[in-house]
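pasting for the record
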Amino acid sequence: MANETMEIQETQKQEIAESDAERTRSGVAFVPRADIYETDETIVVVADMPGVDEKSVDITLENNVLSINGHVEPRVPEGYGLSYAEYREGDYQRRFSISNQIDQDKIEATVRDGVLRLLLPKSQPTTKKIAVKSG
């Protein structure tokens, strides 16, 4: 019973409330779970988004906020009626704040088998000499 309660609480935390964001689509939206890895040159974000492919995911970057939106169309097998379901289908929404240390022009994204992979290359540090004038 305790495990079931924890699972329900976990699921509720993963869902985005309808009032948290303006949505034009009906239905539930989930926050996809993500892992973040870092090397000296790159930050890699891997997000689970079952049912999403390259045509149904939208990634935008505005004011150092990386927004991920994945749209999932419900699939009902032809000739069957749903009797019981534990798996819920829905869209995905997640936002990440990124620093100025990311080379925003070189961000890459791929999706395969419902897993989104973002490569965020770090920009090379630059040293700039500032000329000092009199007066």
